[in-house]
Amino acid sequence: MNASASGCWHCGEPLPPDALLAQVAGTPRAVCCNGCRAAAEWIDQLGLSDYYRLRSAPAERPEESASAQAWARPELARHAVRTLEDGRSEVCVLVEGLRCSACVWLIERSLGGVPGVASVQVNAAAQRARVVFDAERAALPQLLGSLERVGYRALPLDAAALDDARKRESQTAMKRLLVAGFGAMQAMMYASALYLGAFDAMDEVTRDLFRWLGLLVATPVVFYSAQPFFAGARRTLAARRLGMDVPVAIAIALIYVASVVEALRGGAEVYFDSVSMFVFFLLVGRYLEMRARHHAANLSDALARLTPVFADRVRADGTLERVGAAELQPGNHVHVAEGSAVPADGTLDSERCRVDEALLSGESAPVAKRRGDTLVAGSVVVDGPARLVVERVGTDTVLAGIVALVTRAQAERPRLAEAGERAATGFVARVLTLATLTAIGWSFFDPSRAFTATLAVLVVSCPCAFALAVPAALTRALGVLAKRGVLVVHADAIEQLAGATHAVFDKTGTLTEPDLALERIEPHGTLDRDGALALAAALARGSRHPASRAIAAALPDAALPDVTDLRAEAGGGLEGVIDGRRVRLGRADFALARDDVPASLDEAVVLADEAGVLAAFHLSERLRPGARAALDALAADGVALEIVSGDAPGKVAAVAERLGVTHWRARARPADKLARLTALRADGARVIAVGDGINDAPVLAGADVAVALAAGAELAQASSDVVLAGERLGALPEARAIARQALRILRQNQRWSLAYNLTVVPFGALGFVPPWLAALGMSLSSLVVVLNALRIGRRLEHAVEAPLAPAGADA
Amino acid sequence: MNILLVMIPLSILLLIGAGIAFFWAVDHDQFEDMETPRLLPLEDAPDTPPTGEPPP
Fold it and tell me: Cβ B40–A105 below 8 Å, yes or no?
């Protein structure tokens, strides 16, 4: 990162004027705060300053927190720490701010140095660290504390919810795949000897030797690797349905049993190679699909971060005690500080407060609550403090319900894969019928050839290529997209992205940077520029509104006048008393407390006292880098573009003009946005909605495919189908190009494999295909399908630099 | 052709050996993370051994 030039050496945030200096590797480096200085110097003293060279994104700014200490409570630790068989303890933590592989390295080294830690495993893709430690010598708070010191917030995961199931599934699948692969390879070798021997008149003893060897290697393949097919077939048959597994299991069993019988009685042909390869190719398809599914599941863990881990429980005597959210019981009284999240569902016990319920409604405007109203876990108290009586905890909360919904949506298989599998199932069922017909036909005509012809039909028409066509293309597409920072949460999105005709963009935070910049100050009346800014900054300092942040950032650490009686009016602005004078900052009609405001102040942030306007602050929006190029590329691709924003018409028009977009709507509330999408879709359009995923979660849900820019709230990842990591808008046209190519190749694969199977089946049924040719055809057709899928994304491979390109080498 | 009687059992033994090695690797999480290990060779040897605690 170029942090040394423009921002804090550690976290990359803009430097305040009175920046601190940290000594890193003997060189003074500018840092933004004490936390960053401590983190940078500590990293250096550990001999870990290589981190700055290896990392590809700046670090999270360390926030001083006491939460690590709270993990010392045994009630809480019990949920997170698991005791292993050998007496050591294990904890799995979700590490926030784990952004690149250098972070992984840093975490491993810093945790590994804590006395008592036996092993540290960090998985960057899943943002998790698994630590095995000796509970006698190290304690959980100490581990979390050392993570916090290097700038990572860590959240221990519930021991019961460890991803053991996922891990076991993938390990078993890998083993089965390997056994099938080895078996298929060996069986093929012995079979080629047999095929060559058939031409050169091999003597019978050698022939039988090779047949028995084939049996030896094919047996573990059928009895171990093919187990999931038999188990699946049993399950679907028990449910009185006919899935893909049933015909596959029948075919495997039939070919294997027939070959064993042939080998025993010294018959004409054995098919151990075919059955092994059949299993192997089917398993490859399943494995690729499973990988894609696990990847999506890792994304949904982001939602888990919305639930607060701690709660401040009110004791009987009115004092507070910090406990884990999991320890709360219905009926407990809980204190929620301003700006923190509600730990459990409950009713408000204090007079009134306002909460941000974006996770329920997608609306970030705070909702006013009165005594007795319901608060849901995960929503944020905007002005408080609030006190509530707990009603539902843990898995009963609304948030847990949402998480369950998202998890279920992600466990569903993509429509394309299901359609592909249905087609394959129908195909296999027909092949089985055809094989039966062949057997019956030949038994009338020439019973001695009935068996070989039937087996040839089964082998030659094996739908391996057909079954691989969809997962191979989908997995490759997901992989290529992920490499360019496009995370596909719902695999269906690939299909929708490719077929979209319209794209609707939100403005603020999507086309423009989420942060505003203070462009100019226009003093009115007696105050000068600096005096006005000092007053405004003093008011704005505590607020998180983008406009307030822009004003406060203009005067970061100066000594500001004290504000008393500060109060915020949603949608209006801030009010407070400074030096005995009541001042207001915000929209002109709020600041002046009247409706007829001059048009020149319409779009400015106004500072006023009771006498009148003191100053007007003009804020400017910056377009996201690459926004114009991305929109042009989409337009050139035939996508109709539209901006629908909740902002004032003037601002929306200006942005639309700079981006060359002719259709725009301003002052649209979420309901208006949703109505616009519905209208577009009623006209037959297929719509991509692009937003930051916070204010427009329900709008995104109304589109054919929802795209969110990732630095938004974690919720964005849950409410959208596609996430653009690194907030790179340019990834969108690329993603669309890749999606279209993937779909084209997928269809090509399906058509091709179907054509192949339809051509060869009649020859097999008529007895023209010798078994070696059938086996060869089967593997070649599968190979063609996989190679074809690998073409996806090849053209773009070097066109654009990946979003997480190695950086930091210059730092 | 008698050499086959030596070579084939030998190849099968090798195969079983490779299979056992792979099973071991899978069980010991060698395939869990394909991202991190590629960075490890880039690191320089530390001047002082890490202690885990910030020096006073």
Answer: yes
